[in-house]
Amino acid sequence: MRQLYFIFILSLIATIAIAQTPDLSDRVKALEDRLQFLEQGLSKQVDDLMWHQKLGDLATIDKVRYTSKPPHVISNPTGQGAKNPLVIQAYTFIPKKFASSNKLPLMVLVHGGVHGDFNTFNAHIVAELIDQGYIVIAPEYRGSTGYGAGFYRQIDYGDYENDDVLAGKQWAVENLPQVDPSRIGIMGWSHGGMITLMNIFEHPEEYKVAYAGVPVSDLIARMGYKSQAYRNEFAAPYHIGKDANDNVAEYRRRSPVWNAQKLKTPLLIHTNTNDEDVNSLEVEALINALKAHGKKFDYKIYQEAPGGHIFNRIDTKLAKESRVEIYRFLAPYLSPPNAPK
Fold first, then answer.
1. What is the pTM of this model?
2. Percent of the chain whose pLDDT exceeds 70
3. Which H or E run includes 298?
């Protein structure tokens, strides 16, 4: 019965796509578009259920909604509700074994990916955080997958997405009574590492400490070594709208390496020399920029660590040791009740 239902839905989508587009190539593109977002939505719903299966015995899990800035690109500014704040969803995890504690530290955990999402790939990291006594909030900032074409095309890499994450932190402080507003950290890998950096650079008073793993650090350099398809994503009309060579100042404004002078927050950075996604040259440029500005921070450049881009997010001995290193760095600033020894 369920299979028949999906077949009916797909047939209906195909019929609508064909009816609404006159050209055959446009019909095919419209159908592919609809199927892509349908698949993403179904995958998201299934993965949301998996959170409860994996961590339901350890944490009270919820998915909340809050508002952030309006869309960055508004096609019809005079349209009804065109400038309404965007609604952002976020996952929250409250440790059950520390339910009797008066106040707990908050960790803002930022997912990666140009169009990524917070999924159960991160379950082991969330489990490690809640075991230490952290409340965790993981925002699904604009452009995240699983919420349809409209939200997907709200992507604003390096700009308003940073505000979406900050708004999630502020929501948690205002709405989760166990959160200690004086003990808030932020962490993320890859694109999530970039958002982490931009948050502490722009709002140092909001966070006590930060971790950025293999962070995207320089969009200008990145556009130089990535494919044309990757560059096209940024140049899309609903995104930045121009290539880096046509608006280099905008790409610079969105890049951590060009904001390094703003660092005031305790920070740990990790990179890996065989990273196949974020070339270590980006992160090393950030490290050098921070040093040039006389900033105090911690970092480690892993040499050819197995796993490449996800070297310390997998289940190897090295990965687990690296994560313990992260948690030991965070603990003195956030004082979780079960800090690693």
1. 0.90
2. 94
3. strand 298-302
